[in-house]
Structure formats: C-alpha cells, structure tokens
Amino acid sequence: MKVALLGHRGKVGSALEPALVAAGHEVRGIGAGEPVDVAGLDAAIDFTTPEAGEGNVRACLEQDVPCIVGTSGFPLEALGEEARERGLVLFHAPNFAIGAVLMMRLAVEAASYLPHAEIVELHNAAKRDAPSGTAKATAARLGGDVPIHSIRLPGLVAHQEVLLGGTGETLTIRHDTYSRDAFAPGVLLALERLPTLPPGLTVGLEALLDFAPSDEGN
After folding, report:
1. From the candidates 25, 92, 127, 175, which is the catalytic residue?
2. Domain that residue 29 falls in
3. What is the mean pLDDT of the chain?
4. 87 and 7, same structural domain?
5. Is there a catalytic annotation at residue 11?
6. Does residue 19 fall inside a structural domain?
7. Could you write out the DSSP letters of every residue in 17-75?
8. 92 is catalytic
C-alpha cells in the first residue's frame, strides 16, 4: 500500500517507518509543519500530537484518504461522522500494542469478580495528555468511574497497571512497553484490515482481533 506517515520523525513514527517499509508498504513521511499532501494514497497514519492530530486527520479525509490514528487527546467523533459521510474509514486505537489489548480484556474479566479497581498509568515526560487514552479506555470498560493515577517521568515509555481489590486479596494486571517497536504489529494489522471496516469511526484494536470482537465505533 502507499501510505502517509504523519509524525515520521517522532518517537513512534521513527520506529514505525522501517517496519512499514519492511512489510512492503511505500511510505511518504510528513513531518511537523509540512503540507499534508496525501492525495492518491491508500491510507494515512497519524502519530503526532493532540494539537496537530485533528487538523491532520481532517486534511486527509478531505483528500479522500482513510486514516489510522494513534494520537490521543483530541475528539474524533465529529471526524468519524465526516469520514462516514465521505464513505471513508477512520480507525483509532488508544494503544496499538497487542499486550495492552490483552491487559484491558483481562482486567474486564477480573472486574466481574473483584469490582474495586484503580488504574496507574506511567509514560515518558514528553507525553502531553493525561490520563492516557489507554487508561481512559480501560476505565470505560470497567465502568467509567475508576480512579486513574498518571505519572510522567523521563526514562519511561508506556506502562499501565490495573489494581483490583477484594476481601483479603488484590490482583495486579500490568502491561509494559519498553520499545515503541511494540506498536508496529498493531499498525500493520490495522492497515491490513482497513478495507474490511465500515465507513466512519471504529475504535479499538480489539475490533480487528478474532479473540475479542468490538461493538464500538461506527
């Protein structure tokens, strides 16, 4: 596929670009401040900032290019409606690491037995939004009223714990991302499945995985 990678010089983009090329995709890198010229491409992938992401996605949709969005911290609902009206797919995942999706799934299952939960999410100091998109998505799956504790420190990449408590016991479910290379398999899967998704917004990598069909989005 011919794809645009917005944010190709960033922490995630610089890890994704070689993975996309190795998988046989033709990549057009678009950096900060550069024109969002994606006309004629098969898809666009955005891993930028909350301030830039919304405008990037809108520019891609206006050029009739479906989008995969890894950026969090800006609303996607209106953009999803615009994508639906144009007959385009807009896919967003709070986290593209397969292990993170499993962590959320296991937390939901455990919460059926241990309903008292709190979330601790830890990210690099450069991450702008807090709580993270993954933490908010996890809280929503657990009922939406779960306390979230955000930590931003140098040296971290992306980490999350879900702590569940019961009488005389606790259970901790933790996922650690040590390298942004962990996001590449999820992005490649999203590219592969993009033509099979309905127009409009689809949310969550679990929507693409056989073990956990999603009822979100659209």
Report:
1. 127
2. 2-92+182-208
3. 93
4. yes
5. no
6. yes
7. HHHHHHTT-EEEEE-TTS----TT-SEEEE-S-HHHHHHHHHHHHHTT--EEE---SS-
8. no
